[in-house]
Every structure is written in structure tokens, then in C-alpha cells.
Design a protein that fits this description.
This protein is α/β, with parallel strands linked by helices. The protein has a 7-stranded mixed sheet, with helices on both faces. Strand 1, helix 4 and strand 2 form a beta-alpha-beta unit. The protein starts with a helix and ends with a strand. It binds S-adenosylmethionine (SAM). The site of S-adenosylmethionine (SAM) has 23 residues, from helix 1.
């Protein structure tokens, strides 16, 4: 599926971010303090949340996990490490995949983990080839959300499970509040179709629907505080222009979160029979 220029620009931004974050001791230290991990992550999945994911996906040796939009390896590599499952990590930014490959090697996961550059809207895998699928805050970073859900439905085994988190705009906002929410959220947060309807239309049945907004707001506020406290390194990592626009965006997110205009939800789904 063709990517529009804004999507392509976002992928390029992610690529630069993965290369820079993973090579900054200070940024990795912040990530450890806030999310409990040190992969150079860009989602809001914390180490605590991964315990829930292992359980919901029933991850264990012999099961095959697909992580879509896996960035620099979080949390796919960690889920594989703690559960012993086999894993396939996919994303578009090459720099992230390179960092993930090095981390897989360092963590002794080379034999059970494959890493491939692939678009979530056109997965290069056979039907029913995964027992579990996970993606963290990925659908709010791309336009063709429904196409990704359709592709996931194709590659999941009949008794497989998918879990994903997504950031979304709170329902029933006034036009002005909606605009503030959209400006504070991830680039492609907007969708005309609510996620439950999208899942229904793409052949999925919801088994879990968990509100993670409070955890997200807390994690976000801590991260933003530490980034501001380490501004020099933040600027070195993201560049002068990148850091300015990212800090402005962070402030817009914080404002929207404080007004309860943004939500983060976790869905657990299985294929409809
Ligand atoms: C919020 S980041 C999460 C990355 C990683 N899982 C983490 O937790 O750090 C969203 C990811 O979605 C990826 N993404 C965006 N569009 C995509 C697409 N069409 N196919 C696959 N991944 C995509 C981005 O490259 C980015 O790495």
C-alpha cells in the first residue's frame, strides 16, 4: 500500500530516533527509570505492561510471536526473552531493525528471533503462521489501520491471539477540544471508525478491552520531566530543530492528557470463527 509523504516523513523520523536514542546512555537511563527497559523505545509500553501481555498472549516456548512496528526491539525481544517463545520482528525504519538485530545477538536470541523490514499493511508471511501478534501504539502511527488489522487476521492461526495498545481521542469532545486532542496525540491518531467497529469489520472478536490511560498519563509526565531536566542531551540526540518540535509536541500531549482528551487502550482479540 503506498505511503503518503507525511507517513514517509514519520518513518524517516523514527529511523533517526532509533539510531540516536539507542546510542545515548542518558536517554537509555531515562527509559529505564520511566518504562523499566533500555531498548530505545518510542511506545508507552512499560515493563509492568509486558507481564500482562505475556499472560494475555499465552506466550511460552514453542509459540510463535509477531511484533509489528517493533522499532528497536521493544517489546518483542523482551517478550521472547522472558517467555521463551519464537519471535519475528517487523518494522519499516531500517535503523531500528539494525539496533534490534544487535540486541537480539547480545541477548542470545539469534536462533529463535527473525527480524525483517516489512510494512504492516502488506505482511510477507503465509496464512495462519503466528500464534500471537502484538503491536504497541502502532495503529496511531499510520493511516491504513484497517489494512493492518486485515493482514494480522490473515497471518494469525485459528486459535491464535492478538494484543495491541493504541492511543486515541476521547469520545464526545467539542470540535475545539477534538482539535486540541488531535494536535497533542500521535501523528495519525485520527480515525473515523472506532476501534471496536474496525475490529468487527476485519474479522476479530474482542476478548479484553483495558483502559491504560492513567498509566500512560503517569508514564508520559515522568518521561517529559526527565527529558526537560536533561535538555542538553535531548537536543544532542534529536538535533536543535527536532528537539524543539518534539518538546512542543510533548507539551501539547501533556495539556491534552491533563484535560482527559486522550486515551490509551489495550485490546485483546481472537479471530472470529
Ligand atoms: C510508537 S512506535 C512503537 C515502536 C516500538 N514497538 C516501541 O515500543 O518502541 C510505532 C512504530 O510503528 C511503525 N510503523 C509505522 N507505520 C508502519 C507500517 N506501515 N508498517 C509497520 N510499522 C509501521 C513505526 O516505524 C514505529 O516504529
Amino acid at each position: 500500500m503506498p505511503r503518503n509523504p507525511d507517513e514517509q516523513a514519520l518513518i524517516e523520523r523514527f529511523s533517526r530516533t532509533y539510531a540516536h536514542l539507542s546510542s545515548s546512555d542518558t536517554m537509555l537511563e531515562i527509559e529505564r527509570a520511566v518504562c523499566g527497559c533500555d531498548y530505545g523505545c518510542t511506545s508507552w509500553t512499560t515493563k509492568d505492561e509486558t507481564r500482562q501481555i505475556v499472560e494475555l498472549l499465552d506466550l511460552k516456548p514453542g509459540r510463535r510471536l509477531l511484533d509489528i512496528g517493533s522499532g528497536s526491539g521493544w517489546p518483542g525481544l523482551y517478550l521472547a526473552q522472558v517467555s521463551g517463545c519464537d519471535s519475528v520482528l517487523t518494522d519499516l525504519p531500517f535503523e531500528g531493525l539494525k539496533v534490534a538485530k544487535q540486541r537480539a545477538q547480545k541477548d542470545g536470541l539469534n536462533d529463535t528471533c527473525q527480524i525483517a523490514q516489512a510494512d504492516g499493511t502488506a505482511l510477507p508471511f503465509q496464512e495462519a503462521s503466528f500464534d500471537a501478534i502484538y503491536h504497541s501504539d502502532v495503529l496511531c502511527c499510520l493511516v491504513e489501520k484497517q489494512a493492518v488489522l486485515e493482514q494480522c487476521r490473515q497471518v494469525i492461526a485459528a486459535d491464535g491471539k492478538m494484543v495491541f495498545s493504541v492511543i486515541l481521542i476521547a469520545p464526545d469532545l467539542s470540535a475545539a477540544d477534538y482539535r486540541q486532542a488531535a494536535a497533542g496525540g500521535p501523528t495519525f491518531i485520527e480515525t473515523d471508525t472506532p476501534y471496536p467497529d474496525m475490529l468487527e469489520q476485519t474479522g476479530w472478536q474482542i476478548t479484553e478491552h483495558i483502559d491504560q490511560t492513567a498509566d500512560y498519563a503517569e508514564t508520559f509526565a515522568k518521561m517529559f520531566e526527565l527529558e526537560k531536566a536533561n535538555k542538553d542531551e535531548f537536543v544532542r540526540v534529536h538535533g536543535e530543530e527536532g528537539a524543539t518540535s518534539l518538546l512542543e509536541r510533548r507539551q501539547a500531549t501533556l495539556d491534552a492528557l491533563q484535560k482527559n482528551f486522550l486515551r490509551r487502550e489495550l485490546f485483546g482479540v481472537v479471530a472470529k470463527g
